[in-house]
């Protein structure tokens, strides 16, 4: 539990430090449009590889097998690479950045479509955010914290650093979190495979040989 609480405190401290960069609405909403490419890339990747992949996917892998648990991560990884290749072309064609820009370019000033997209976007965003808090609650419960308390703690921490630093806080904490995932998940995967092999007489090759 001390590790978890230390991470929460770290994110709040990061939010406080980054709050000094926020002087205008542009700084708060889009980080002054000055985020480094590597930070933007990590933020986008962290948005894809959230609790659904790292918690839900792992749980699904335990229940159904390694490959079923990995399919979501593989698919999302491919979409990141594909987006990196074609997103610029779409932006040039539609002369826009956000999905509403593309819809307006393709279908014109349709109030129905813009309203429909806004509703779908809000519902999707709420579901994604809820998934992250649920994942945090599931992980934190392993440290002896009750699920509800953990969800509340995660919600409060995110609200605090977002309130203080806006997009700067979101982007940099995403960068930190994904960096830790890249560093530690391969180590955990290897150690987990060794434990499974030792306790159940199953090799990693046996686990990977069943794609469905």
From TrEMBL:
**A Gene Ontology MF term for this entry?**
symporter activity
Q: Just give the chief location class.
A: membrane
List the signal peptide residues. Answer: none
Keywords linked to the UniProt accession: Cell membrane, Ion transport, Membrane, Sodium, Sodium transport, Symport, Transmembrane, Transmembrane helix, Transport
Give the highest taxon in the source lineage.
Bacteria
Q: Does Signal appear among the keywords? A: no
Output one GO BP term: sodium ion transport
Q: What is this protein called?
A: Sodium:solute symporter family protein
């Amino acid at each position: 539990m001390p590790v978890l609480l230390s991470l929460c405190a770290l994110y709040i401290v990061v939010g406080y430090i980054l709050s000094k960069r926020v002087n205008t609405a542009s700084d708060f909403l889009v980080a002054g449009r000055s985020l480094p490419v590597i930070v933007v890339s990590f933020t986008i990747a962290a948005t894809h590889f959230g609790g659904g992949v790292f918690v839900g996917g792992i749980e699904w892998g335990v229940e159904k097998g390694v490959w079923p648990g990995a399919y979501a991560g593989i698919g999302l990884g491919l979409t990141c690479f594909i987006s990196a290749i074609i997103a610029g072309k779409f932006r040039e064609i539609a002369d826009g950045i956000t999905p509403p820009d593309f819809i307006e370019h393709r279908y014109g000033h349709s109030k129905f479509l813009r309203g429909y997209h806004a509703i779908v976007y809000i519902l999707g965003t709420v579901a994604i955010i809820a998934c992250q808090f649920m994942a945090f609650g599931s992980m934190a419960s392993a440290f002896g914290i009750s699920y509800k308390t953990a969800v509340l703690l995660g919600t409060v921490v995110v609200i605090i650093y977002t309130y203080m630093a806006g997009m700067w806080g979101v982007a940099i904490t995403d960068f930190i979190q994904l960096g830790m995932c890249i560093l530690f998940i391969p180590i955990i995967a290897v150690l987990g495979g060794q434990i499974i092999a030792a306790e159940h007489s199953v090799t990693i090759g046996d686990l990977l040989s069943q794609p469905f």
